[in-house]
Write a structure and sequence with these properties.
Number of strands: 12
Oligomer: single chain
Structural class: alpha+beta
Strand content: 15-25%
Number of helices: 3
Helix content: 25-40%
Shape: globular
Radius of gyration: 33 Å
Strand order of the largest sheet: 8-7-2-1-11-12
Order of helices and strands: HEEEEEEEEHEEEEH
Length: 234
């Protein structure tokens, strides 16, 4: 009798383990332009929002393979609140080498990346492709496309920013300059410039007025003397 109870529990174990839900694993950073040393060194970083490890064996990423084919993740485990690095070529801290990983610089041609679990359920995805530009990142500087908030939806353009560093931050916390900080710095620079201009005006205005006043008196006095001299000779 005990044998059948254990057999029943063992067979039901896979169903008792909670399957991954949307945003449990997210696409956290994308080097769609490759690395500064090589455009072919592309990589995709996944992040686990859960505290427990998640097995991603058999998962896939649509539009991440050669000719926009689906990239298969044959094996891999993402540690709780940890990272999982998928790279095209061997690089430091790479967890899974996918030789068929290939991302186009043209986002419209590439299409959004769609992360699916083993059963084909959508776990995460990047924004819809509306034009050729990726939501973030730069091919000129090698700065990656970094997710702003891993717990927020990945298909929101506002949730992606350009990495602060060239080459990004693979398997580490994303670093980027917030647009709010940029605007604040711009306003501060403009305010500092205006303040300096005002300060300069305040500083030079009395001297300028004194010189102008002196010239006015000198020119007026000279005109009177000249007029008297003309009258005397006549």
């Amino acid at each position: 009798m005990r044998f059948w109870i254990f057999a029943l529990l063992f067979s039901a174990l896979p169903f008792l383990i909670r399957a991954a839900s949307p945003l449990d694993i997210v696409i956290n950073e994308i080097a769609w332009m490759g690395q500064p040393d090589s455009a072919k060194n592309e990589w995709i970083e996944l992040y686990n929002n859960r505290e427990k490890e998640i097995d991603t064996s058999g998962w896939s990423i649509e539009n991440a393979g050669i000719n926009r084919k689906t990239l298969k993740i044959s094996k891999g485990r993402v540690p709780g609140n940890g990272f999982f690095l998928i790279c095209r070529k061997k690089m430091p801290d790479c967890d899974f080498i996918a030789k068929d990983l290939s991302l186009a610089n043209d986002y419209l041609k590439n299409g959004p990346l769609i992360l699916k679990d083993k059963a084909g359920n959508i776990i995460d995805k990047t924004p819809k492709a509306k034009n050729k530009k990726w939501p973030a990142g730069s091919v000129k500087t090698g700065q990656t496309m970094a997710r702003k908030n891993p717990k927020d939806k990945g298909d929101l353009i506002s949730n992606w920013l350009t990495s602060q560093r060239s080459g990004g931050t693979p398997k580490a916390k994303n670093l980027f300059i917030s647009p709010k900080i940029k605007n604040q710095e711009r306003q501060e620079r403009q305010g500092f410039k205006i303040e300096n201009q005002n300060h300069s005006l305040k500083k030079t205005s009395p001297d300028t007025m004194l010189i102008a006043f002196s010239l006015a008196i000198f020119s007026g006095t000279g005109a009177v003397l000249l007029k008297r001299k003309i009258k005397g000779t006549s």
